[in-house]
Fold this sequence. Notes:
Layout: H1 5-36, E1 41-44, E2 47-50, H2 55-81, H3 85-114, H4 116-134, H5 140-146, H6 155-159, H7 185-236
Antiparallel strand pairs: 1-2
Helix pairs in contact: 1-2, 1-7, 2-3, 3-4, 3-7, 4-7
Amino acid sequence: MGFETSTLKHILLLLNFVFAVLGLILFGFGIFVLVNAPEHRTVVHGEETTVDIGENLAGGLIIALGVAILFISIFGCLAAIHESKRRLLIFIVILCAMILIQLLLSSMTSQGTRDGLAGSVEKGFKDLWEEELKEPGALAYYEKWLHCCGVNGTDDYVAIKHDIPKTCCEDGHCTKAGDYFTKGCEAQFNKYLASKMLTFNIVNCLLIMAEIAAAVFGWLLFSNLKNESRRSNLTWI
Length: 237
């Protein structure tokens, strides 16, 4: 025996509530990315050198995805409450499209973290190091923020016979060699990026699983309503 129509309605309403919650989480996370994205810049000779990682674009896309999920959840609730076969069918098609889009987005972010973003960060820090060679202090912002030293570590400064800057130490106090930050800024920056991508991917995976479940139960409800309508027509005959 299959599910009763009322049971399917309640399951679908519950799943749409889950959508709304996850959509709000994505929306909030997108705002967090935009608001808390540090200004990756260093001023050297009056000019700004930046590491462009596209956080504003990423935050905007996450917000847009969160808003889309909220609208879909509202539409799904209305389709279930009104037992509209047409709306349910549209809801299922939209969910299938969203699942494909999110799978593609997850693939792009994962690949982007390994390739595109990694390449962008590597180039950015290479440019910063070239500025550091001309004028000490180009990496100061990142060393303070990420608790790192040089691009790859303190050996970067040793190799060019420069004194290790105070920004490589906690609160700028360096009393002995062990006080220096040992990790390079490029590695720390990539770690920072990975933590943000992990949060997004976890929420996105939960959302995809909920969407698959909603598409299945939406189809079951659509089939039930279609069968009930068919039986009703046969009764009149």
